[in-house]
Design a protein that fits this description.
The chain is α/β, with parallel strands linked by helices and about 250 residues long. The chain has a domain at about 65-235: 2-Layer Sandwich (Nucleotidyltransferase, domain 5). The chain is built from nine helices and seven strands; from the N terminus they run ααββββαβαβαβαααα. It has helices spanning about 25-35, 40-45, 115-125, 150-155, 165-180, 190-195, 210-220, 235-245, 245-250, and strands at about 65, 75-80, 90-95, 100-110, 130-135, 160, 180-185. A seven-stranded mixed beta sheet has the order 1-7-4-3-2-5-6. Helix 5 crosses helix 7. The longest helix is centred in the last third of the chain and has 14 residues, at about 165-180. The radius of gyration is 21 Å and the shape is globular. The model is unreliable at about 140-145 and about 250-253 (pLDDT under 50).
Length: about 250
């Protein structure tokens, strides 16, 4: 019996994968997968919400994500920053010079905080790492109209404005993802959440909702690669001394 004041329209969400459906055999799963486009397989087989034809990067997650590992100190790094009052986000990338693959390995994702708080969180990843920033930051800041680029620089961040050519940047990211030149650590949960819903509307325009780390990825690929530097020698030596001989070999592998 419905209780007084209780809504008659009650909903709940339950995520189920094929592995939890007993009537599907392994052979049936394999046959079904052959009929499903790669970009939709995680949604169909694992119950992970994803877009279909509107997705900007229609790739299965397993082609993009990798298990986290320790970034060698000699790999060049940079980060990209997207600022805003509701959400300020940053993504860090490191390049394996042997393979040319860039790994997005760390993220920052906070809202409704002053620049000083964001700057502290970004510096904690490594004050030596340079960055690129949304060029719109050269306009008005979240609170009092100061120029955010100058403000963040004054707070100790080494920043340069990024190129903001949207379609060219998206094409470059698509090529990098599909060719395996851009990989993402599985612990970058906010990046993954944005990747899953990053889409175009019916007119082909990018939907500007929850896309902060997607924008950061574009800034990093278009402008951050030229700013990547390895950890300075003195900082690398200090870190290795701190780790000790047993952990040094593991860290450098």
């Amino acid at each position: 019996m419905k209780k007084l004041g209780e809504s008659p329209h009650r909903k709940f969400f339950l995520q189920i994968s094929w592995n939890e459906v007993p009537h599907l055999s392994e052979e049936a799963k394999e046959e079904l997968l052959k009929t499903i486009p790669p970009s939709q397989r995680d949604a169909r087989a694992k119950g992970i919400p994803q877009l279909g034809s509107g997705a900007i990067f229609p790739l299965p997650e397993e082609d993009v994500l990798v298990a986290p590992f320790e970034i060698p100190h000699y790999w060049p790094q940079c980060y990209a920053l997207d600022v805003g009052w509701k959400r300020t986000a940053a993504i860090w990338g490191a390049r394996d010079n042997q393979s040319g693959v860039i790994f997005l390995h760390s993220e920052y994702y906070q809202g409704q905080q002053p620049p000083a708080v964001h700057a502290q969180g970004i510096r904690s990843r490594g004050e030596w790492i340079p960055g690129v920033i949304d060029p719109a930051s050269r306009g008005r800041s979240q609170v009092d109209g100061k120029k955010l680029l100058s403000e963040y620089r004054a707070l100790g961040l080494d920043l340069q404005p990024a190129k903001n050519t949207v379609e060219a940047g998206l094409a470059m990211i698509w090529q990098a993802l599909s060719s395996g030149k851009l990989k993402v650590f599985r612990n970058c949960r906010n990046w993954i959440d944005e990747f899953r819903i990053y889409q175009r509307d019916k007119n082909g325009k990018v939907v500007k909702v929850n896309d902060h780390l997607m924008d950061c990825t574009r800034y990093l690929w278009m402008s951050g690669r030229d700013r990547m530097i390895p950890m300075p020698v003195e900082k690398a030596e200090y870190t290795m001394d701190f780790l000790g001989e047993n952990n040094q070999n593991k860290w450098m592998q």
